[in-house]
Amino acid sequence: MVTSEEIDIAYKYPFSEEARAVIAEKGPKQIDYRYLELGRDRVEAAMNKKQSYFRIEIENVKLGYVISYIYARMLVSASANPLLIKAFASGEAKRSGMVLREETDQTIMGLAKQLSYNVSSNGNSEFIISFTEYLMKKPSGEHYALVNMKLKNGFVIMDRQELSRALEHSIYLKVMSGLPIPKGQLPKEVLDYYSSSKIKLPESMSKRAPALQGSTWVDTVLATPIPDVRHRTVNLVLAPYLINVKGMDVEQAIETIKKYIDECKQLNPNTDVSETYIRYQCNYAKNKGMRPLSLSKAKELLGEYVDLGKSQNPVQKGKK
């Protein structure tokens, strides 16, 4: 049976192991309209950069907020909008980061462990992490360059604020993990609610870039980061298209695909699509004269992630 302390941690950090335990025990067994409403409020707060943490003592209110996190994840997945998904994850990370800065050393280290950060306290309100692990996990940005960090005996020493900011980046990646949930896995009630709930996206999120003259459905794929099936997308769609339709040389195609995969990692960083793999597929496509998948086959592969509507131009034969 979950404790009041676990519910409190789950309220602060809804991506945590404690939150999973709370939801497993206390969450509704079927879709509940109340939580869809709370989930929508949560998404809109993140979208409008109004996510914040409030200290609450009423356990049922905290419990509702924990459950609303799961519903919010389903709603942003129903949108299939990469910008909205990123805004949601960013808002959640900032909210949890606010709380983390005020936690005890023990709580910070416990959450860090859940985020795969192996840190310890030196007893002086400072935290130490191995040089190698820091390089693997540090956020990008000049502030986190090694020249700006305190180093000693193969360890990086971080104060509470520095570690909290670093963990905020890891929280963002944690929230992004598994998003978007494929539409085929979303309950019909969630999809229907999203369609009718009138979540108003800011103009920057709701406007699609105008299609370029002569653009094809593959260009639409290149403009739409995806969280999954990236290996097959590279070898069955992108490499043959860029090499044998667009007529790019191998190096151009590699750079184009690398940039696309980097954008995909913003949705889901878990991928081993390496430059070596991309290079191999581009050379293979060139040597074999491969053509990309047909549109109908591409819809089977990518339909959950990319809108490949009837208006898409066909892929015409091009240069080899």
Can you walk me through this structure?
With 320 residues, the protein is mainly α. Among the domains are: 4-101 and 173-196, no CATH class; 208-302, no CATH class. It is 56% helix and 5% strand. It is built from 15 helices and 4 strands. It has helices spanning 4-12, 17-26, 33-47, 59-79, 82-100, 105-114, 131-137, 160-176, 188-196, 203-206, 217-222, 230-244, 250-265, 275-288, 295-302; strands at 120-121, 126-130, 150-152, 155-159. Strands 1-2-4-3 form a 4-stranded antiparallel beta sheet. It is flat, with a radius of gyration of 22 Å.
What's the gist of this structure?
Helices cover 56% and strands 5% of the residues. It contains 15 helices and 4 strands.
Q: Which features characterize this protein?
A:
single chain, 320 residues, flat, 15 helices, mainly alpha
Break the fold down into its secondary structure elements and pairings.
Layout: H1 4-12, H2 17-26, H3 33-47, H4 59-79, H5 82-100, H6 105-114, E1 120-121, E2 126-130, H7 131-137, E3 150-152, E4 155-159, H8 160-176, H9 188-196, H10 203-206, H11 217-222, H12 230-244, H13 250-265, H14 275-288, H15 295-302
Antiparallel strand pairs: 1-2, 2-4, 3-4
Radius of gyration, in Å, reads: 22 Å
Annotation field: number of helices: 15
Beta-sheet strand percentage? under 5%
Spatial ordering of strands, largest sheet: 1-2-4-3
Span between N and C termini? 64 Å
Mean of the pLDDT scores? 87
The residue ranges in which pLDDT falls below 50 over 5 or more consecutive positions are: 207-214
* Main structural class: mainly alpha
- Percent helix: 55-70%
Largest sheet: 4 strands, antiparallel
The count of β-strands is: 4
Shape, principal axes of CA atoms: flat
Query: What's the order of the H and E elements?
Result: HHHHHHEEHEEHHHHHHHH
